[in-house]
User: Which sequence fits this backbone?
């Protein structure tokens, strides 16, 4: 096992000053991080120099605040009220509203044993209710009668005169077969 001093000396030996220098001086302050400025031939932005020639555009100026730590109050929005008075987050507001709805509906209460054991009463039918009278025809026969009525209405519009027996429900093939049996 190595001591801390031995570890530090190993790190210093492994550190290459040319490849990864952490602090560079630019202007007044010190820039943190390796120098990444491109040389003139590496720069892609060009400007016309006249005579059909292009030269690399000039370098950007270094910022004035290099090397200074930016304060949190300039970067991050600061609270306007005292701690704890900001209210609920959107998710908490949603949850609270849902719980209030359930409480209003009565869904939050658990049913009692007597409520669980009671049978549901069926809705009572009105005494004035009278069911529709049966025609005595099957669904297919009802369709035949309906089609014959429509056919009669169309023929009357067109002015076609056919004998009434052609439209009577009793004359259809299905009805004739039923009557003959």
Assistant:
């Amino acid at each position: 096992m190595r001591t801390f001093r031995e570890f530090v000396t190993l790190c210093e030996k492994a550190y290459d000053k040319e490849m990864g220098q952490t602090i560079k001086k630019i202007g007044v302050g010190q820039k943190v991080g390796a120098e990444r400025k491109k040389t003139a031939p590496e720069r892609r932005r060009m400007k016309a120099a006249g005579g059909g020639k292009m030269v690399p555009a000039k370098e950007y100026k270094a910022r004035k605040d290099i090397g200074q730590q930016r304060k949190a109050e300039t970067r991050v929005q600061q609270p306007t009220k005292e701690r704890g008075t900001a209210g609920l987050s959107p998710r908490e507001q949603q949850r609270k509203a849902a719980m209030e709805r359930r409480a209003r509906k009565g869904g939050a209460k658990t049913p009692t044993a007597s409520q669980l054991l009671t049978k549901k009463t069926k809705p009572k039918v009105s005494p004035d209710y009278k069911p529709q009278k049966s025609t005595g025809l099957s669904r297919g026969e009802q369709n035949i009668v309906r089609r014959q009525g429509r056919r009669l209405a169309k023929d009357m519009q067109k002015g076609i005169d056919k004998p009434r027996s052609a439209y009577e429900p009793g004359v259809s093939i299905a009805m004739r077969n039923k009557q003959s049996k």
Q: What stands out?
A: Residues 139-158 form the longest helix (20 residues). The mean pLDDT is 78.
